[in-house]
Design brief:
Elements (H helix, E strand, L loop, with lengths): L5 E4 L12 H16 L5 E5 L11 H11 L8 E4 L5 H12 L7 E7 L3 H12 L4 E7 L8 H14 L8 H11 L13 H7 L1
Parallel strand pairs: 1-2, 1-4, 2-3, 4-5
């Protein structure tokens, strides 16, 4: 059996008490199943910042706590990124922070069915051609209702990173910090290179 380097879990939502919603829990449960099938070898990577105004707990930490407290995953098997603010950030920061663990360049992404196509395009672009990226998804009743939003978001991503070569982390980083509204200060507080370099 080919073992993945890592299982990357994309978070959905949580409440003001840092409790994951059902969709996030189901993603964590699926990741746990795959982790067990992989002989508990791959690192489990949880993604997501403290996006709520009523708690300073990052959703990646809530996901990690769920894996440890509800599914009995050892803490040392989990890595949590607290910088990512969206799917683009999930791809960029998972590679930027944890690429040293990806020796075989083979990872699997856990998300929901409606999100798979967009996430696949974004991760393939940011990781580049040398990576083997697989997906496993939970089923939801949102696949049809979210089609337009997902398509529009993917179009916006393509426009933002137009002309950048797949896998070119330096240029992707520059565009992320300068042109992406979730990171350049348009919507959320501006992120700087120093901020995430100090995080690693």
């Amino acid at each position: 059996m080919n073992i993945y380097d890592a299982i990357i879990i994309l978070s959905n939502l949580m409440d003001g008490e840092s409790n994951l919603n059902l969709e996030s829990k189901n993603r964590a449960n699926l990741a746990f199943e795959i982790w067990n099938q992989q002989n508990c070898i791959p690192k489990l990577i949880t993604m997501g910042w403290a996006y709520r105004n009523d708690t300073n707990v990052p959703i990646s930490k809530s996901m990690a706590n769920y894996l440890v407290n509800k599914l009995n995953v050892p803490k040392e098997q989990i890595l949590s990124d607290v910088l990512s603010r969206d799917t683009v950030g999930d791809a960029f920061f998972s590679r930027y922070n944890y690429e040293k663990f990806f020796l075989k360049k083979k990872i699997i992404i856990i998300t929901s069915d409606y999100h798979e196509k967009r996430a696949h395009s974004i991760f393939k672009f940011i990781y580049g051609e040398n990576y083997k990226i697989h997906f496993s998804v939970i089923e939801t009743d949102l696949k049809k209702s979210k089609q337009k939003d997902e398509r529009d978001s993917l179009d916006q991503f393509s426009n933002t990173f137009n002309g950048i070569k797949s896998g070119d982390m330096n240029k992707i980083q520059n565009i992320l910090l300068q042109n992406h509204p979730l990171y350049n200060g348009t919507i959320n507080p501006q992120m700087t290179i120093k901020e995430f370099e100090n995080h690693v």
